[in-house]
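Q: How would the structure tokens look for this protein?
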Amino acid sequence: MLDDLPLTPPVPLWTDIYLKFSSEQAAYEQLLAAGLLIETQALLAEDETVIIPAGYRPAPGASVDYIGVITKTSYPDFVPAVTAEREVEGMDGKMFTITEVVEHAVYGEPTFTDLDGWHVNVRLSADRTCPEALQGAIVSPSTPSRVWA
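A: Here is the predicted structure in token form.
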């Protein structure tokens, strides 16, 4: 009976989409309009205190990863230390070579640059396609800052 089972469970197919919007507000508005987000109501206790605040959740068949603003770090060129060797006479009269630092290494300070836009990664199940309304927000990063595991 167990011999009839597949060796590995079936792996669902996913479509990963990288999106860039002009702002966080624009991202929420467009994802809601495209049907990839669903607005949720706050959950209140009997005394009207908020248990779970209002917000958004992904629609069925979609996962949403809010990246936000991406900051790139650039490092200045590293300048290694300059060394020199010289012969020194030891206390026993034997000569040996020592290495001295003539100029210390220069590390420099990194610079941080915010990329334009507000970024969101979306993963859609195989039965879903990217809504037409989001086609203009799709970007194709050569090295994504974050990917789905």
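Helices lie at 24-33.

The longest strand covers residues 95-103.

Upvote if useful.
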